[in-house]
Design brief:
With about 240 residues, this protein is mainly α. It is built from eleven helices and no strands.
Length: about 240
């Protein structure tokens, strides 16, 4: 990775780790379009690897608030969705994958903005897990469906439960990608080089996660996602 790309992606990772550590969502929505624009061959492995320590940290930090019932049903759907994500990776070229990431990012952000309030039940949790399995395995982006089902819960529940669901799902996705030969040395080295930025962003989130205006952060994530997704689409076209 060139120094210019390393600096730009590290900045995105730092911001994304701070945003997700504070609000519970946003890491992949911020980093995947940037990586897709600069180094599309690193997707989705680089994003998935980086999210492992971040979500482990957030889930442990607020473990007492985890919604274990909802997380269980989401994980069940997530496992089945992994197969759909592998199919997407198998049939798309790097350029088409960039298009898919851009479209997924914009669509997910718009749906999250437009979705009315509702009280999720078992079908909603399973559906969210299924969709997350497809999109996160293929692109690294999996937060919006989970943000939808938990958008009206208390911030600690949102952060901790989504982090746990991500953590389990990322292990499944990475294990499956490894078995399918979709992980290479370049992706892992890139992820390791971005860890310092991840740790700084996560540490900064600890200073503000109990006081920060989560509504503002969610709005920032959605606007950034739409803009970056559109930029990625234009670049891929």
């Amino acid at each position: 990775m060139s120094m210019q790309h390393l600096i730009l992606i590290s900045l995105a990772v730092l911001i994304a780790a701070f945003v997700q550590g504070a609000s519970g969502v946003g890491f992949a929505l911020i980093t995947a379009p940037v990586i897709g624009l600069l180094r599309p061959e690193l997707l989705p492995v680089c994003v998935l690897v980086l999210m492992l320590p971040l979500n482990l940290y957030v889930a442990w930090r607020e473990r007492s608030a985890i919604d274990r019932t909802g997380a269980s049903w989401i994980t069940a759907g997530r496992v089945f969705g992994t197969a759909g994500g592998l199919w997407v990776l198998a049939v798309l070229s790097a350029n088409h994958l960039a298009l898919f990431v851009g479209l997924s990012t914009v669509a997910a952000a718009l749906v999250t903005l437009a979705m009315p309030a509702f009280s999720p039940g078992r079908p909603a949790f399973v559906a969210a897990g299924l969709i997350t399995g497809v999109t996160e395995t293929a692109t690294g982006i999996g937060g919006p469906p989970l943000a939808l089902v938990y958008q009206h819960h208390a911030p600690p529940v949102v952060r901790s439960t989504i982090a746990l669901c991500f953590l389990v799902g990322e292990v499944v996705s990475l294990a499956t990608l490894l078995a399918m030969g979709r992980i290479d040395h370049t992706q892992l080295v890139a992820a390791m080089s971005l860890l310092p930025a991840l740790f700084i962003g996560a540490a900064l989130s600890r200073m503000v996660h109990e006081r920060i205006n989560s509504r503002f952060l969610r709005a920032f994530v959605q606007v950034f996602a739409i803009v970056s997704g559109l930029v990625l689409l234009v670049h891929a076209i």
